[in-house]
Amino acid sequence: MMAITSAPKVTTNQRIVSIDALRGFDMFWIMGPELGNSFVSGLVILMVGHLPESVSYQLEHHWGTFGAWDMIMPLFLFIAGVSLPFSIGRRIEAGDGRQAIYLRALRRVVILWILGMISQGNLLQFRLDHLKVYSNTLQSIAVGYLVATVALVELRTVARQTVLCASLLIGFALVMLYVPPPGGVAGDFSPNGNLACWIDKTVMGHFMDGGGYTWILSSLGFAATVIMGSLAGHALKAPLPGARKVLILTGAGIACLILGWAANFAVPIIKHLWTSSMVLWAGGWSLLLLALFYLVIDVLGYKRWAFPLQVIGANAIVAYMAEKLFGIEHICRGLFGGLCAHFGPARQFTLTCLSILFLWSLLYYLYRNRTFVRI
Predict the structure, then answer these.
(1) Which pLDDT value is given to residue 33?
(2) pLDDT of 173-184, one tens digit each?
(3) Fewer Cβ close by (within 10 Å): the C or N end of the chain?
(4) Burial code of 193-231, b = ≥16 C-beta within 10 A, e = fewer?
(5) Please, are residues 269 and 278 in contact by the beta-carbon 8 Å criterion?
């Protein structure tokens, strides 16, 4: 793994530390049994004696509104896209043709899809009545990754890829606004009356998510989110001064926030549906976060504080799947439960802290041994 020691120009053979750090920051909140969420809520309770509604609201999902917790999944997809111009660029420079790139992409899609079914689709229960075919963040990344890869290989220029991204968002908005579901009305964005939900029910039947999220039509938005990340990756890869890249990312982020706010009047910002306005709104914040991390870590050179996040981001797939495959929560309760019982009101918070340290230590072991799980 190659870290950057100076900010200026970045070649395709270098690894931008801020990308791993931002990925680690995002993954921190949901690694294990959502340990980051538990850490913040537990800390606030210890400090003020209860969890204020304002904080609780930011740590939950809500239909029709957008809080901090709603950023986790969009940021995950966005970061997946940021790395694409570097990884695909290296393959093209190495002489890989379309067939080799597409076969690798399809292999990754299949693996991500299976892991998604293990994580949230109950694949390992081996019960058809519990199986969910399309229901997980990893599967949304798989769809977006595939479309973004094709865009990078076939469209090549940033302008064409931007047009594709805009077309996906406009296409989703037009379909939702003007195509009514059978027995319903066009432009319905309610939880049970929207077209995207009807499509999922019709196509997947009892294999659908059932958690209020939509997936098939929302795939247009998933692809747009990953492509937005890919466009940001192009900016980071460009032979420009670091400060100039920060300005580009910041300007693009502000523009997306304005567009998302304006689009909200026609197509509401709803993360469960992955609406076009939500993609722009979340994309704006993702761009600003990337600009901030890149400025602090790679331009100004303040890297040490981000090392714990970098360790998580370097093996994000392990951090994400650890609970689903190995039951990290159960292991940590067995290891630390007795000790934490002596901490009275702070026992749950202490358990959360020790669980974070335990999982991070495993990730650090992999990091020190240069073992990086790639798909």
Answers:
(1) 81
(2) 999 999 999 999
(3) N
(4) ebbbbbbbeeebeebbbeeebbbbbbbbbbbbbbbbbbb
(5) yes
Question: Vertex 209, ends 205 and 213: CA angle to 5°?
Answer: 120
Give the percent of the chain with pLDDT over 90.
Answer: 82
Residue 8 included in any domain: no
Q: What is the CA radius of gyration of the chain?
A: 21
Phi-psi region of 66 (alpha: psi -120 to 50; beta: other; left: phi over 0): beta
Is there a domain that residue 1 lies in? no
Q: Does 89 score more than 90 pLDDT?
A: no
| CA 187 – CA 317 distance, rounded (Å) | 37
Q: 326: closest CA among 359, 357, 299?
A: 359
Q: Give 15 or 108, the one with higher predicted confidence.
A: 108
Q: Domains in the chain: how many in total? A: 1
Q: How far apart, in whole angstroms, are the C-alpha atoms of residue 278 and residue 272?
A: 9
Q: Is residue 6 part of a domain?
A: no
C-alpha dihedral over 317, 107, 3, 17, to 10 degrees?
A: -60
Ranges of H-type helices in 208-241: 219-237
Give residue 14's pLDDT. Answer: 57
Q: Is the pLDDT of residue 53 over 80?
A: yes
pLDDT confidence bin for 154, thresholds 50/70/90? very high
Both tokens assigned to 143: 């769809």
- Is 319 inside a domain boundary? yes
CB 299 within 8 A of CB 8: no
pTM over 0.90? The answer is yes
pLDDT tens-digit profile of 168-213? 999 999 999 999 999 999 999 999 899 999 999 999 998 998 888 9
- How many residues does the structure list for the chain? 375
Choose among 228, 278, 281, 274: nearest CA to 78: 228
List the domain range (segments joined by +) for residue 235: 17-368
